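This part of the workshop introduces the protein records we will be handling. Getting from the letters to the tokens is the skill we practise here. An example says more than a description, so a record of this kind follows:
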Amino acid sequence: MSSKPLSLFDKVWDSHVVRSIPDGPDVLLIDRHFIHEVTSPVAFLSLKNRGLNVLYPHRTFATADHNTPTINQHLPVADPLSANQLKALEENTSSYGISHWGLGNPKNGIVHVVGPENGITLPGMTIVCGDSHTSTHGAFGCIAFGIGTSEVEMVLSSQCIMQPRPLKMRINVNGNLQKGVTPKDVILYIISKLTAAGATGYFVEYAGTVFEQMSMEGRMTVCNMSIEMGARGGMIAPDETTFNYIKGREKAPQGKDWDDAMAYWKTLKSDDGASFDQEYHFDGAAIEPMITYGTNPGMGVGITQTIPTASEVGGGKASFDKSLAYMGFNEKDAMLGKPVDYVFIGSCTNGRIEDFRAFASIVKGRKKADNVTAWIVPGSHQVEKQIREEGIYDILTDAGFQLRQPGCSACLAMNDDKIPAGKYAVSTSNRNFEGRQGPGARTLLASPLVAAAAAVTGRVTDPRTLI
């Protein structure tokens, strides 16, 4: 056993290496494999064609989410491609004995929401899914990352994957957050400082008092967006907040198994003196509510600030100008007061109960702006149930909002929830790429508080003025 100080990443990675290939990748054992209807059909077809079985079906969990409708889920899915993919997922999971939460199942929802809320995601695990935002699960002290279709097949058939060991980065944020500043603002701020490619090749550990004080929902939001600065994934050391969140959930350890798990989980933190290839320090007090102005998540500013110039940002002027042209914005424009046509709250970034509590805290006693179309989409049926039980549903309906059914929805517009061309959407999702939320759609990424402020005023508004 090495006495060298190890990082949290080192401890989890090293404990899962089945074989190291000289001058090549490591073969990693995968603890949990999540699948959905979009990236799994081809993998299953390849398994069938090669005569292979799923090695450990109990380690794989399936849910329908990406292109499910968010209204009238009791009716047949109208889109033929979506219907075929949903049917294929149901048939494939049945054939191989894999747990499947399809439409109508009370446990159904977005894959990165239902995993944690059912106790499937546990500290110290390796977790993969054919979805880039698998990094969400790193909030529990996991190494979690997205994989491609061929890798989905590899994990199904062998429960292992070949991966080069990434570099390590630690991002420290200390201090006290201002009123109205949420975990979404923290990660948008970090990405704006590092850029959308600033963590390429790294696995990030988030450390410092700001993350220690965050709820698990907030930590999941932060880790979810690690991929948006190019990182392979992000993780936060588990602590009492983590353990309290997990305890009692359906698939969490019980009795002696819980005690044994806790003994291990408490070792999952970076040792004093652990080395990192890159390290950053930020002051939490310097962060204000954030909003993006461009076409990647790194193009963000504090909500009271103006859009920077190309020279202030650095990098290519042509691409910067193209981005602003797509958005219909100009350098030095103020973000406050920009008109808003759509508001979307949901996705694996901000579709948890804490996000709807925040949204409701702003809209309570107010009315939805007449010029705004709002899509309020819980991340799972369990979240939807909480929304109703906590009275949030009544607050939303009194304010003129309608609650939709769970799904990925307008995050990537694979169902009917598409923002029309040229329209502006304040979105709590994770990506603002050209056409991400619909062909020609213009996306402004923001927190649930900023989204709520926009929904009741019809324009970009500092939520601190409404709290």
User: Anything to note?
Assistant: The chain has a mean pLDDT of 96. Residues 290-465 form a domain with the Aconitase; domain 3 fold (CATH 3.30.499.10). The chain has 17 helices and 18 strands.
